Amino acid sequence: MHPILRGFLDKWVYPTGFIGPGVDFRLRQTERCLPLWDKLVLQAIKAAGTDLASGSDEYKAARARGGYAAEGPFMSLKQMSTQILSVEISEQPKYIDLQRMRARQIWDEVKHGQLHADVMLRGGFIKREEDLMDDPRANTQPKLSYFGMTAMFPHIHPLARAGQHYYNESMACLGIAATLSVIKDDLIRHQLHSQSAEELMHFMEGKYQIDAYALTPADQKPIEEVFDFLLRPWAPEPSRALGGSA
Amino acid sequence: MCYVACREIEINAVVVAPTSQHFLEIDERCTYPGCTVCLMYCPAEGSIVETATGRSMVPPPPEVWTKNQRWPRFP
Fold this sequence. Notes:
The structure holds two protein chains of two kinds.
Chain A: H1 3-13, E1 18-19, H2 21-53, H3 58-71, H4 73-84, H5 96-122, H6 153-156, H7 160-180, H8 186-213, H9 217-230, H10 238-241
Helix pairs in contact in A: 2-7, 2-8, 3-4, 3-5, 4-5, 5-8, 7-8, 7-9
Chain B: H1 2-8, E1 14-16, E2 24-26, E3 71-72
Antiparallel strand pairs in B: 1-2
């Protein structure tokens, strides 16, 4: 196991405030995630090394465009706001804290989009943020398992989103830590450091939801099904998920 | 996250300060070291400090989340 993952587990994953079926369930799901978390760290380090070896600054723009596509205002407002719909009016008192966390996340994600735009602006790749609207690379992202499923998860169960928070936001934390271990560029580091605390907050949301609320088989099942989906090897690649071979 | 966890167990010791910056504060209702649940869900490294020693409690050291310190959480 890579030391970056080991450190993440010891600092943020294993410390537990409760005893009960929610914690037991989360730790079982964690075991399923470990191989892919470890793989992600290695891939992020390799990608950062490839970027540095390119001899060009284009990698900064490519990262920022991809980040803007995944977290810019277009994606964030459209996809993240649907999270709020997962809790019906009758369940609002029960899940009001969960709703507040998700409302906060909408703000966070839009801010992350601005960080990516800032890389593009300060790196001299664009003159105005609006220029990104003309670039498909800054407005499309191919991962089903990212926020693309947000439109579906809300209809499954109020807690289904916890699986995505736990798995995807941990990936964000790990990817950022792995990239920071390699890339020393100030522009990239500013963006990553500015984003990392909020990604950890989103991960904690998933951790807390599962520990505190996923106490019965009925509440655990929809979360486990989200993990089932996210852990499929084709989940990040829609063309394969839809039957293609690319 | 810390005030959410604290409220969930009905201690309510973590409060949002009525200042313009809305810092989180911990008041006399906190039963630390008997209860440490907030520490496990705080994502802000170094943001909670043990007064007596000055050591950071985030991320939480292993001795503050032993089994007897965790809250039972059952349906």
